[in-house]
Amino acid sequence: MKKWLFACNIIFLVFMSSSPGDASENKITFSYTEWEPMTYTDPSKNSKGVFVDIAREIFEERHQIEIVFHPLPWKRAQREVETGRADFMVTVPTQQRLTYVVKSTLPFYTVDMALFTWKEHPKSEQLKTAKTVDDLIDLELTSVTNLGNGWHKQNVEQKGLDTLHAPEDQNIALMLAGRRADIMIDSKISMNRIIREKGLTDKIVQINPSFAQIHMNLLLSKKSPWLSKMPEFDQVLTDPVSDGTVDRIIDHYIER
After folding, report:
1. Contact, 225 vs 22, CB < 8 A?
2. Is the backbone peptide bond immediately before 73 cis, with ω within 30 degrees of 0?
3. Rg from Cα positions in the chain
4. Residues 162-207: tens digit of each pLDDT
5. What are phi and psi of 92, to 5 degrees?
6. pTM confidence score
7. What is the bridge-based pairing of β-strands 142-146 and 40-41?
8. What are phi and psi of 114, to 5 degrees?
């Protein structure tokens, strides 16, 4: 009986130690996946990235709340927020996610989605004037994206643009460089970084800087002890933008 009670106590303590940020302890938990340079873990196991630094500015600098970081595969990262094991994530507020989170009124960050193609593509001039997905469909092109790109599925594929899939962003850049697809629509910041790191600057060109925009919101778990503070968090979201903090953060990570 004593052994059973001891085991129960250990399980309880383990559960409590991995529970979400406790408002009384002044800690909040950020669940994220690897998406360099937006969110990633460096070789020293430190959380880094544009979203990480903006979150530090909002919570630690402007609200004096310590952030605890949970880097996880994307499905598990979302599940952590859904179950309340983590307090928040930063992503697109889909209808399914809104069943278990409250979204910020203002965007946490707006991602510019650029249009890329391979060098000397025969339809490069037409691509320069393309403004919508319908324009791309009219050009009879094939796009490539990663398997988890929900925005692309909803806003590009479901409109009828022929699309190939690859596991990771690095793979889609390599497929485009190998001319297995005509275009990709992806984050200007993260994809240009991959293109440089993979040595593909002589094979892939960015057609325009902002073909579309994706608004990423702060999504706070409905089970978070910080839920009542959401209006206060929301209120300062524009501050790091208006005072130039976000631009300084981006400059730290990005070669312009």
Report:
1. yes
2. no
3. 21
4. 999 998 899 999 999 999 999 999 999 999 999 999 999 999 999 9
5. -80, 130
6. 0.80
7. unpaired
8. -95, 160
